[in-house]
């Protein structure tokens, strides 16, 4: 978590395999997490799960994503159980201790998540405005303190792949534990809202 402590912006870029691009078969997701200057901070990779589960459950599949430093040192684990509704993901540190959980709140139309700390107390709300489907505001007591934004990744990439790029902004002095929970939120948001967009 030291690498993210002094930052106010991170970029999460999904990496795609040519085999998936050409065949359309769903493979395990991989990401690179960078600072705003483009320097690599972490690597993230989906592990476990079955081939058939990925093909049939697609964006609804359960996942475990391991976040590693470039030298392979484990930093975080983000785990999502299977849910028909009330989707959630829990963020663990390298020792397996819970740092926090991101839970989808019930709503017919709006995209709202509660971000909880290790004790289950709500620390943030992620709010996705209807007219801004690519953005989730990070709110505290109704006030926006940052955002998660799916960024345009270029016409060819958007047209032919499902690779997604996200920018996350938050206060520089925010607790590093809160920052990494918000990183975990990006993976859940990506799976829920953008995972299948490239094949539609």
Characterization of the model:
The model has no long low-confidence stretch (mean pLDDT 84). Helices cover 19% and strands 40% of the residues. The protein contains four helices and twelve strands; from the N terminus they run βαββαββββββββαβα. The longest helix has 19 residues, at 176-194. With 200 residues, the protein is α+β, with helices and mostly antiparallel strands. The chain has helices spanning 18-23, 51-57, 155-160, 176-194, and strands at residues 9-15, 30-35, 40-47, 63-68, 74-80, 88-93, 98-104, 111-117, 122-128, 135-140, 143-151, 165-169. A hairpin with a 4-residue loop joins strand 8 and strand 9 (122-128). The radius of gyration is 16 Å and the shape is globular. It has a twelve-stranded antiparallel beta barrel with strand order 1-2-3-4-5-6-7-8-9-10-11-12.
Short description:
The protein is α+β, with helices and mostly antiparallel strands. 19% of the residues lie in helices and 40% in strands.
Query: Got a strand count?
Result: 12
The overall pLDDT, averaged over residues, is 84
H/E order of the elements?
EHEEHEEEEEEEEHEH
Radius of gyration over C-alpha positions, nearest whole angstrom? 16 Å
- Derived from helix and strand composition plus strand pairing, the structural class reads alpha+beta
* Unreliable parts: none
Query: What is the distance, rounded to the nearest whole angstrom, between the alpha carbons of the first and last residues?
Result: 36 Å
What fraction of the residues are assigned to beta strands by DSSP? 35-45%
Number of helices: 4
- What global shape is seen? globular
